[in-house]
Amino acid sequence: MTRVKLDFLDQLGKFWELQGSALRIPVVDGKLLGVYALSKVVSSEGDLRLSLKRRNGLRWAIGWDTSQAKAQALF
Q1: Which of 1, 18, 37, 61 is buried deepest, with most CB atoms within 10 A?
Q2: What Rg, from alpha-carbon coordinates, does the chain have?
Q3: Do the domain assignments include residue 28?
Q4: Whole-model pTM above 0.85?
Q5: Cβ(23)–Cβ(33) under 8 Å?
């Protein structure tokens, strides 16, 4: 894991700690979700709300090598 990813996860964990909750990274198809990669994809497309409105979440999930049915269930 690169230093950038570790720093990102550390900052994300600290944010959730300040919110009074522990960071829980989702597991998809038995693998931890790449929250850093997801963050980069969403920020490159502009905004999470716009991306979800365009149904890009399905494309992201398919890119994680999940089945089509599970990808549709996620988004």
Answers
A1: 61
A2: 13
A3: yes
A4: no
A5: no
Domain containing 73: what range?
24-75
Looking at residue 29, its amino acid is D
Taking only the tens place, the pLDDT of each residue in 9-27 is: 999 999 999 999 998 888 8
Neighbour-count burial for 34-45, b at 16+ CB within 10 Å, e otherwise:
bebebeeebeee
Structure tokens at 54: 């365009």
Whether 7 maps to a domain, the answer reads no
Residue type, 14: K
Number of neighbouring beta carbons within 10 Å of residue 51: 19
Amino acid at site 1: M
Query: What DSSP string describes 6-47?
Result: HHHHHHHHHHHHHTTS-----EETTEE--HHHHHHHHHHHS-
Residue 9 falls inside a structural domain? no
Q: How many structural domains compose the chain?
A: 1
